[in-house]
Design a protein that fits this description.
Length: 79
């Protein structure tokens, strides 16, 4: 499974979003389950799957599907 597939699967699992709906419109506040608990689940799942540890600043800035892709590049993970 490639990194994009892993990344997409995390969003599908954490937020119950259909994969075909994953796009730049997936932002915190617009997704029903993306509240503080959903955010923690998203972050910890990504950290586990990609074997990384986000900096606090990155956790706070991770507010959209696309922003997450940008942040992962800082950890040498291309999605």
């Amino acid at each position: 499974m490639c990194n994009l597939e892993k990344y997409d699967e995390i969003f599908v699992d954490v937020f119950s979003i259909e994969e075909k709906n994953l796009n730049e419109n997936i932002v915190r506040g617009a997704v029903k389950d993306w509240d503080s608990l959903g955010h923690v689940k998203l972050i910890t799942t990504i950290e586990d799957v990609f074997n990384i540890m986000f900096d606090t600043e990155d956790i706070l800035e991770f507010d959209s599907y696309d922003k997450g892709k940008e942040i992962l590049k800082k950890y040498n993970i291309t999605v």
